[in-house]
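Thread: "does anyone have the structure for this chain?"

Original post by V.I.:
We have the sequence but no experimental structure in hand. Need at least a predicted one for the grant figures.
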Amino acid sequence: MSTKLFVGSLPWSIDDQALQTAFEGHGTVVSAKVIKDRETGRSRGFGFVEMENSTDAENAIKALNESELDGRNIVVNEAKARK
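Reply from O.Q.:
Generated one for you, tokens below.
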């Protein structure tokens, strides 16, 4: 079963493909999406990455949380369901 990760503090220059590439070295990426503002189309500074399984997700969190991506320290943790 796949696991969805929240990725925060993203650099404004990151797009979906760059986000996916950053995570591919830590497991199989099912999808990667940078969330954009509806009106302007610009990044909102966060996104979601879906990893194939929980082991890949844990590896990505350990390796990438508080790591630098294009000059910014990103935050990576398991996504929580909306209430």
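V.I.: this helps a lot. Residues 5 and 77 are 6 Å apart (CA to CA).
O.Q.: and The helical segments are 16-24, 54-64.
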